[in-house]
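Problem: given the chain below (654 residues), write out its structure.
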Amino acid sequence: MQEADINIPEPSTQPTIPVPSSYGANNIQVLDGIEHVRMRPAMYIGDIHSRGLHHLVYEIVDNSIDETLGGFNDYIFVSLNPDGSVTVIDRGRGIPVDIHPEKGKSALELVMTVIGAGGKFDKGAYKVSGGLHGVGASVVNALSEWCEVEVYRDGKVYFQRFERGVPQGDVKAIGSSDQRGTKTTFMPDHLIFKTTEFRKDIIIDRMRELAFLNKNLSITVQDTAGEQEIFHFEGGLKAFVQFTDQNRLSLLKEPVYIYGERDTTIVEIALQYNDTYQENVFSYVNNINTQEGGTHVTGFRKALTRTLNAYAQKNDLLKNLKLALTGDDFKEGLTAVISVKVAEPQFEGQTKTKLGNSETQSIVETILNEQLSEYAESNPNVLKVIIEKVKGAAMSREAARKAKELTRRKSVLESSGLPGKLADCSINDPEHCELYIVEGDSAGGSAKQGRDRSFQAILPLKGKILNVEKARLHKMLENEEIKTIILALGTSFGEEEFSTEKLRYGKIIIMTDADVDGAHIRTLLLTFFFRHMRALIDAGRVYIAQPPLYLVKSGKDQQYAWDDDERNSISDSMKKMQKGKANIHIQRYKGLGEMNPEQLWSTTMDPAHRSLLLVSIENAMEADHVFSTLMGDKVEPRRDFIEKNARYVRRLDV
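Solution.
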């Protein structure tokens, strides 16, 4: 291993966090071995692509976060090293290195090589914890080409190296230090992962999120060039909500903040309303993002609806409203972060996306109901603003209901028929069917002629669909293109009626021109799917087609290029076959309609040769931030985003 150049800021003073003497080898409990981790890595980290790769970093960081939750750590350093490895350093208590009384090995070796070996299973070591059910460090080690751990505790520095999970010697003291903590450096195994290149932006998104959730924690991220970004937010969840809504107009001066404890559960909530029509609720349990929600979110929704509704009724704020408010009315324009700390969380599934503890729901309900009621009584002007927003949502809901009834009578949303412009496929098995949503009639014509009619359906759109980021539900249902998409998909629409089980196509492929207008239409479609049919994205059903930008020809030799660099490489290669005498012709496709059906099939639609981009959500908060930036009302954030990211665009004809 080549020593990485790591710049760690020296603390101005030694940490004042107390170190209990009770945390030692006796606290480490052993459950099982890791023999099959390398054989079935996806069982432990989700997949062996980018998401699973970055999950390795999160698991090591989560161990440091657990020290923070216990009150023993206030700093984490993450370095993306030039050689492709990653280093994580904290100032916690340091992994114990003494000999385990039952296993006869050092606690450090057990933590790094045995699944289920860790202080997380001992209630005396951690009251709450996240991570992969306590197996994180051993899984990271097993899936690494090599891993090195340094432990700073008891005035000494201890070291142990592993290669593909196997210790390369015992733990040994290699020096002295008055610091404390753990330093872990690992190199992802290229024999396991399809990609071993870490993305700085993905790491930063998660580290920023953790800094928001732990206001006493400072996290530094250093990239391969040595540049650092530091994340520390004294405002905690309030700062989290303000960051999320920075491209929206907030209706409140500052977010409402709720904090309470019941038994061993800690509840922390920040919320505010903005002028948009979407809801953004992010939930966490012990710092783990519960993307599918759970009992804590259910408790939040019930208490929010009941408390605000009761206040509005009590203060006669609904006298001009002829509708009864529902829970959905309180979602419009709501941004909230719910963070609970639970001693023994019961997660549904290995990836911890949904909390199942029934008692957590009543705890969240009680705390939010009590404190939000007090806030409402003390801030009547704020509550009037919120209730007016809710009333507007209720009236929009009623208008949408009427619009649905009207369209149903016209056989638009509920009908055995399909849109007239849809060229459907012949087979009926959704898992083997594809729907191409194509820009314009010209491209639609080429796609219809070039497709495989047995399993590929074509839906051409006329112009740009409505920007749903700035439109209420009833306005969306008045848009012909959106209604056509809904009908073609077969999923129905609306929170109560939408169902992925009704989906008529296993793949929904967005195919637009490789120019600015095409990119805009693609973004409008992605905004619609993200805001109103996100389940399709989560299920891996939405894709983006990758048509070529150039055709490079020299005599009978012709090759397609997808960007300028590839075009130049092909051109240079042709000149060297031809010894510099090549007569090279380059055709630039300004639109899909310029390709004949055979070309469109061979380059973009043939499953044997095409390239599709799967649309996925790595970070829901960041995805919301991007869509609100690109499609919202504020111009400056959009301009800044474009200027910052323009250099990363590769496939765009300007």
